[in-house]
Amino acid sequence: MTDTSRRIRFMLNGRPVSTRAESHLDLVDLLRRFNLFGARESCGQGLCGCCTVLVDGVAVSGCLMLAQLVDGKSVITVESLDEGGTLSHVQQAFVDEGAFQCGFCTPGFVMMTHALLRENPNPDESEIRDFLAGNLCRCAAYPEIIRAVRTAASRMRSPQAA
Ligand code: FES
Ligand code: FES
């Protein structure tokens, strides 16, 4: 059988890594090889957002992206969002607003919220809904999620008031 793997090198949560990746391997399964389980695979079809990670700062569905395509790029996962054990503003806001029940979708929402607030620090409710439209929560914690995004945005704009 033809070996379709090739060596890739990329930045993973701020540190350089290298591994061999088969041509069919997706990004979520690549992350598993580095013991990163925060990006969840649910639908496997780009429909739910549970597998969201940032690639060169852009939110992508890890289940749809081939691992070989991250060669030379920077990948950020939910595991790296805290700062020295302190939750990021987004993570803390999700906790404070109770923006989850089972938590399965939460890493995807948190990553997507980071991407949103990076590009729009003060989104209104309709902008939040639009941006998060590709993320599904089976527990329907949407009202709390919206509140968490607004709380995180407010704290990030005025961190001293947090
Ligand atoms: S598992 Fe990737 S979008 Fe649903
Ligand atoms: S908290 Fe359960 S799927 Fe969102």
Explain what the structure shows.
A 5-stranded mixed β-sheet has the order 2-1-5-3-4, covered by helices on one side. Helix content is 31%, strand content 15%. It has 162 residues and is an alpha+beta fold. It is built from 5 helices and 5 strands, in the order ββαβββαααα. The mean pLDDT is 96. The longest helix is centred in the C-terminal third of the chain and has 16 residues, at 142-157. Helix 2 (89-96) crosses helix 5. The protein binds FE2/S2 (inorganic) cluster (2 copies). Residues 100-105, 137-139, 141 line the site of one FE2/S2 (inorganic) cluster (FES).
What series of H and E elements makes up the topology?
EEHEEEHHHH
Ions and ligands: FE2/S2 (inorganic) cluster
Summarize the amount of helix as a percent range. 25-40%
What fraction strand? 15-25%
Mean pLDDT score? 96
How is the topology of this model organized?
Blueprint: E1 6-12, E2 15-21, H1 27-32, E3 52-55, E4 58-61, E5 74-76, H2 89-96, H3 106-119, H4 125-131, H5 142-157
Parallel strand pairs: 1-5
Antiparallel strand pairs: 1-2, 3-4, 3-5
Helix pairs in contact: 2-5
The structure holds FE2/S2 (inorganic) cluster (2 copies).
